[in-house]
Amino acid sequence: MSPSKKRNVSEAGLDDDHADDAENAPANADNAPCCWICLEEGPDESGAPLVRDCSCRGSAGFAHLSCLVKYAETQSENAFERAFESGTIDFDKMVEAFKQCPNCMQEYQNNLEYQMQKYRLSFIESDYQNSRDTDERSGLRKMLALPLAVNAMVGRINVLDVHDEKDRSEGETLVAKLLPMVEEYTAEFCTQAPILLHDVAVAYGSIGNFLFVVGANTESREMCEKAKLYAEKTCELFEQMGKEISLMSAKRNLAVVEAYLSDSGENVPDHDLDFYRVYYNDKIHKRGEDDALTIKAGVELAEKLHHSHHGIEAERLLTKLVETSSRVHGTSHECTQRVVSILTGVQVRGVLVEFKDERKKGWYQALGYEDNGDCIVQGPMSEESPYGQRNLEEEQKFSVPSKQILAATGTPVICHGLRCRSNSHLNGKIGDVSYYDAKHSKCVINFEEEGLEPALVNVTNFRILFDLPMKK
């Protein structure tokens, strides 16, 4: 690293530049990013580049991986010294710097998370499990070694890619080491402090998930049977502790394993909205709406809503998440771009167009309405993946009478022209198309407004909504 490229703290952009989007940062040498720890620009001595995968923006948050690891190790050591001096142990502080950026306070993502979890485990093994301390600190290190190692191994297993042969091999080695340690942890700590059973349940859950994914990918029924065993243990422990949300998640994982092992080959329904709503609301309550994990939980809920044909609720939630992620992460962040991409797909209004010539029948995107009420459509879209990749140059745009289109389930619509006393109150009300009732040649609409019951509505008595109005 060249001394000429070293910059002072004020030039490193830890405060003023934090609120700037990366795409708006000035592109001159004075604003080139540098490591916020060593203040050097460019690669480190080994040639490794600056990295950043958190919510920092502008030129803030960049660091060398080697510097981040040293920083995290130092912070962990400082937390240990405070625990030794005060007698109060804060496990979170001992690992916090390995998990989240100290500037934006968001957890590391993707490859940076993968690398930091690896170095966290290596540090715990060398500094605690294999500690050579001979003074009075050695007793505390030995006591902390087991719980810190268990949690570090679980963290590492959770980021491994089981499709990668090297990662899969590492995971199998870790699982073999972790199982006896979890049993020792249970016997040594959990009898005196039952609250620590949570760590055991999480460990069994991670082991079960890893074994199942590996077993399913390698078609190893034996491994899947083992996964079921640990999934059952996880459920038992969360039920024993009264952890309702964790138990819901564990039961879903167990159901997936049981369905895979079932001779009937039945699939687990993937639209359990109750769980995803509870999970998202729990994240809001515990971590706040601006937390990266809360945003991620919101995206998962929105995707389930969309797949369950709750188009309006999904679109409203995604719109909110785009605003939140843009403010928290910046518009160029991977999380924001993913939410925008999903919202863009949800906003496609798919319709099935009927033609006299059955060969022309297919899925099209509705774009709007002509003054005479005809619907403007473009397509056809792929039947296999109507909302996937499209070649717009090969698609045609034309208008068809509204009575020739059938809106896809989940499409937002607004009712109009209803004259019967029994349903005229639905005019101007918006809802989702639930399904097509072939017997009555009408669609069942689920309304957004509370208190309104689903109703059968003729296709000529509702229009597709292309822009959702603000919710009253």
How would you describe the overall organization of this protein?
The structure is a single chain. The termini are far apart. The protein is elongated and about 85 Å long. α5 packs antiparallel against α6. The relative contact order is 0.05. With 472 residues, it is α+β, with helices and mostly antiparallel strands. The N terminus is likely disordered. The strands form three sheets. It has a five-stranded antiparallel sheet with strand order 6-5-4-3-7, with no helix packed on it.
Low-confidence stretches: 1-29
Helix proportion = 40-55%
Termini distance? 58 Å
Anisotropy-based shape = elongated
Oligomer: single chain
Give me the number of helical elements.
12
Structural class: alpha+beta
Radius of gyration: 27 Å
Report the β-strand fraction as a percent range: 5-15%
Please sum up the structure shown.
With 472 residues, this protein is α+β, with helices and mostly antiparallel strands. It has helices at residues 65-86, 91-99, 110-129, 137-159, 165-190, 197-218, 221-241, 244-261, 273-287, 292-307, 311-328, 334-346; strands at 50-51, 63-64, 349-353, 362-369, 375-379, 396-400, 405-407, 412-415, 430-437, 442-447, 455-457, 462-464.
